[in-house]
Amino acid sequence: MSKKKKNNAAVMNSRLISRPIQRCFPLFVLPTFIAFCIGFIWPFAQGIYLSFCKFTIPQNAKFVAFQNYAKVFRDPGFLYSFFYTAAFAIVSIIVINVIAFSVAYFLTQNIKGANLFRTVFFMPNLIGGIVLGYIWSMIFDGILRKYGTFLLAKTEYGFWGLLILMCWQQVGYMMIIYIAGIQSVSEDIMEAAKIDGANKVQTLFRITIPNVMSSFTICIFLTMTNSFKLFDQNLALTGGMPVAFQPDGSMVNTTEMLALNIFNTFYTGANSRGVAQAKSVVFFLLVAALSLLQLKFTREKEVQS
Amino acid sequence: MKEKRSFGNKLLTVIFSVVSVIYILPIIAVLINSFKENSFVNMDPFALPNAESYMGFANYVKGVTFGNYPFFLAAFYSLLITVLSTALILVCTSMAAWYIIRVNDVLSKGLYFLCVFSMIVPFQMVMFTLSMTADKLKLNTPWTIPIIYLGFGAGLAVFMFTGFIKSIPIGIEEAAAIDGCNPFATFFRVVFPMLKSIMISVGVLEVMWVWNDYLLPYLVLDRTEYMTIPILVQYLKGSYGTVDLGATMAIIMLSILPVIIVYLFCQKYIIKGVAAGAVKG
Fold first, then answer.
1. Which domains does chain B have, with CATH numbers?
2. What is the average per-residue pLDDT within A171-194?
3. What is the distance between the alpha carbons of residues B216 and B219, in angstroms, rounded to a whole number?
């Protein structure tokens, strides 16, 4: 009885707030809503529609059903860039997370100057992708020159170069997340392990790592989606070069990742914009699937802990 | 109770000091090369300038003037777009988020769902149609592009604000309402000041995004008139075969120097803001 009364009171109270706000709807929500329609909802809906059309500008769109999608999956450049991106994602997930976790682990061992090191490692995050790409292309070209070659000479150079660049940029970011995770492991468990005579390696593998699993999930998915959405760095470092000829005579940019492939399909001439838009939809579905997978994983972890 | 640092820990400090120096080498390399004559940049990027290659500030003078677009104009537009967009996003999305949480009707639930949905949509999905729409609505100037940023960036900001506002007890707002505050006054006098910490986090994320963004302004802005720093750097490096590397390095140095200075002063907030954005998933 009293509980019901309380509930009623809560409803009354929240109406006290919500009713007047509701009357101010135009002021509070409309600016964001209109901008959201211009900047997201309309372009998104139109994008879906145009992926089924042949067009050079939205005004001359002609409905062609699934023709664009059929072309997408027969485009050697797109398929190549998909596998190239996937390979890059796998390698960068492993390398970046191993380095970032190790750095975070050592920086939480009560060492002198840990804050200074943290500041230094995080710094490259603030530099934009385009600028990063040109800084590193200058460095790689300078190093490779000593061996009589250059960055755009080989696909491998571009791949490992981009990996080094991405490590340099992202290790600091992931390190911050790992440090937060490690610092939130309760002191009690650590102390108990110490009393039980666990050495440092045992503590690391039996206590620290199992307790920062949620940080691992976050970082692994972040590195993965970052790799899949990578554009600026890819454009500035190699721009997709060098070009290779496929057996059937078509050309493939051998360091071109998905986002850059889509961009080039859109803006290198205007004849395949329908296909480009269809590629974007496929790309969106891929990224969305990865995000949902992440959501599922983090939810599961939350239940456990 | 601080443990005494062991030998191993001292060794770690030494190792990390060396690694840190290596870590900032790329930036040092840019600095060194910005003082060297063009042809020497190619030869050995890590060599210090000598009597022959040293140019003084000539690269900087050249860098800010070459390529028929003045560097400082691009820097001005970058700054203008970043400040306007961030301010617009912070004010508008925090108001929308408050409405969403406190009213909680069908409309606000729908809007919230769309915002969360927009966070998983990559820019490439909307890039072509967005640039066309912006063009048609004449939103292609630095003064109007913040509307686009508000639209495309609303998702993350609304998501972060709603998460925070949920944890604010409603009692304070009720007290304000009973005392005769209209919603506008309640929001700006009572709620807004309480949002300070989340404002900083969202603000840091938006500033870092907008300042470094290349593709959105590249596609939306009228490039014959307006360029931002990333567009200018790409334009100078990407579109010519014969690039003056020394001058480019000077421009890169000019563009990262203010960022590094701001970072050194506000690193606490920046690191906190970035970490808050990371856990959004």
1. 7-63 (no CATH), 71-243 (1.10.3720.10)
2. 84
3. 5
Token readout for A33 is: 């809503």
Residue A63 lies in a domain: no
Length of chain A: 305
Statement to judge: residues A10 and A88 lie in one domain: no
Q: Give me the residue from B12, B44, B133 closest to A38, CB to CB.
A: B133
Q: Say whether both A35 and A113 belong to one domain.
A: no
Q: At what angle do helices B106-119 and B145-165 cross, to 10 degrees?
A: 110
pLDDT band at B238 (very low <50, low <70, confident <90, very high): low
| DSSP characters over B246-262 | HHHHHHHHHHHHHHHHH
Domain range for residue A41?
A: 2-50
* CA–CA distance, A233 with A238 (Å, rounded to integer): 8
B contacts of A276 (beta carbons < 8 Å): 128
Q: In whole angstroms, what is the distance from residue B68 CA to residue A292 CA?
A: 46
Q: For residues A84 and A113, state if they share a domain.
A: yes
The one-letter amino acid code at B207 reads: V
How much of chain B exceeds pLDDT 70, in percent? 87
Q: What is the mean pLDDT of chain A?
A: 82
ipTM of the complex: 0.82
Tell me if A238 is assigned to some domain: yes
Chain A CB contacts of B107 below 8 Å: 25, 29
- A27/B125 Cβ within 8 A: no
Q: Do A263 and A234 share a structural domain?
A: yes
- Tens of pLDDT, residues A3-19: 444 444 444 456 666 66
Strands, E assignment, chain A: 53-54, 62-63, 243-245, 251-253
Instruction: Say whether B127 and A281 touch across the interface (CB within 8 A).
Output: no
- Among A18, A109, A142, select the one facing B44 at the smallest CB separation: A142
Residues A45 and A78 in one domain: no
List the structure tokens of A22: 């509701």
A46 and A74 share one domain = no
